[in-house]
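User: I'm designing a mutation panel for Cell division protein FtsA and want to avoid disrupting the core. Could you give me a predicted structure to guide residue selection? Please restate the sequence first so the numbering is unambiguous.

Assistant: Good idea. Sequence first, for numbering, then the predicted structure tokens:
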Amino acid sequence: MSDDLFALDIGTRSVIGLVCRPDNENKIKVRSFEIREHEMRSMYDGQIHDIDSVAQVVQDVKTTLEKKTDNKFGSAAIAAAGRSLETEKYYLETSLNPEQRIDPEQVYALELEAVKAAENQLQERMSSRNIHDPNYYCVAHSVINYTLNSHDIINPIGQKGDTLGVEIIATFLPQVVVDGLEGVMNQVGLSISNLTLEPIAAISLAIPEKIRMLNLALVDIGAGTSDIAITDKGSVVAYQMVPLAGDEITDKLCKELLVEFDTGEKIKFFLSQNKKEKLSYYDILGNKQEITKQKLKTIIEPQLERLSKNIGEAILEVNNGAPSAVFCVGGGSELPGLAEKLASKLDLPQEKVAVKGYEKWEKVKNLRKGLKGPQGVTPLGIALSSVQNKNFGFIDVTVNNELVRLFEHGDIKVANALVSVRFPMKDLIPKPGEGLTVWLNGEKIYYPGQEGKTAQIKVNGEPASLETELKTGDEITVEPAQKGPKASVKISQILKQTTNQYFYFNDDQINFPQAIYIDKERIDQKKGLDLYINQDCQIETRVINTVDELMKRLEIDNTKYCLYDSQNNRFLDDTENIKPQQEIIVKQKSLNDSKSDEIVESETTKGENKDKGPEQIQINVNGEELQLPEKDSHIFMDIFNVVDFKTSMKKGDLVMKINGEPAEFTDVIKNGDELMIYWSEEGPKKLPRI
């Protein structure tokens, strides 16, 4: 079997066949080549319109080269025309959870959703032109810009905001183009050994790998279109097509000089190749004419200006600015003055816009004269791409049991498959539940909903992500993300944001209790703390700090007890306000209702039995059995006589319960009661004995 490689450049005007032999350094040695022009217009802008006619030309090239090189070819490397690519821009914005930082998965999913939307936009645009191709392959996409809260941002990952937007530019290859190429190849008995895109092929030769990290533009100026490819960071990141090229110049010459198209092509070739200053030709009336090269340049000046302007604008649009340099290939790139005009449109020095093709290629040996120049870059690049395995084949995978065929350009990932089956990318991003807005003392407070469940992606049953690479036969399953539960907030959580002023009561630090009103209706603080708040409810709180109200709130019998200001050594009247951090103790009134100087350790509570004498009681505190000393009656705060609990060392909210119900310091406790006391941030724990 021969080691020779057969490559075909099936172009709009001609077919170029190339036979070369690769070596172990990924270089090619040219053995032979053949060029045939189409006898009729069987291709338009790189797309095959008459498979039989194109196949006849390809067969002629194939047969000739088989005889020249003593080969029998069963396959060939080919390229899809860059001019058949379609490019779309799209801006997409999504709402965010303002409390959650943006992660890479969110950004990538939004990009892919924008790509899908760009494809839909392309379908609509094509339909408006009565072009109906249901299938397009996305061959590249790049981000033009991100926005956060409608303002430009370079990188949104790790940020917070209300909205995230992305503008992308995506390039699509119609399936009909690939189908047409496959049809020609089948008819001439050839299989496709390697499929690439013409711009990629040109880049393989014209832009060495060692400089592809730079932001460069390659422009292939052909007959009907000018194809643009952009490189950056080692990859081709964008494509664009301008529907103007060499034919624009030929048409102008034909009109001005009254010549047929073939003569116009020869005059254009004279402009770019011949060193003579004058040219003789015959017009359509049979008159012999003579014209100078300077006169020809004047005739085509408006068309050169228009062509350079359109190419420059397309590069600026697709690259979001001027590249570092521009490489021009294709026959049209040799038009005199075009490179200089293009440099001016891009505001680049003239030396940074170069025509490629006449230099000695590092990767090509035995370069023939007919392949030298810009017109030889693409066929040589097709052969070189095949040697370097720059293949654009297809792989078949399934997404939730749906078969999908993917255009293989580089690494194919789960994300590419999801775009192809039009999976709604927004279903990959977990959305928080409905938030809750309440008004606390006239101030608006928003509580976000709980986070949703992340989408579950698996490949062949194993956990995967959007970045997981695929191969033929892989089975992808996707369970959409789930919305999170709505915000659920208790009154006790709301009150954390109110005053935390406190006073000292019998040496214990106690927060001032509050009167709570919901939608102007007062609620019971003990039972109401566990109530859930409704949307847009109005909550008002008022600090309870008068002696009378505090005694009622602490359930101290004001007929038997009074409050004493130990700092100022005086009894407090019922109407006085207790000040923050004031030190208060409880004193018992004397039998004649006069104030007493005897300090009472605890309150004689409701349900007191005067006939009952002192008694010991057995209780459980935080899961540990304790015994309280003899006393006529016991209240919650009596446990501090036997256990050490620091009420001044706050670690969250103070939680106090008797038999599972909320309690206060002065609540009565009985034999066998189960008490709990702890800080909310710590939880219950055993308390050291005193």
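For picking mutation sites, this is relevant: The chain has 13 helices and 41 strands. Residues 619 and 626 are 5 Å apart (CA to CA).
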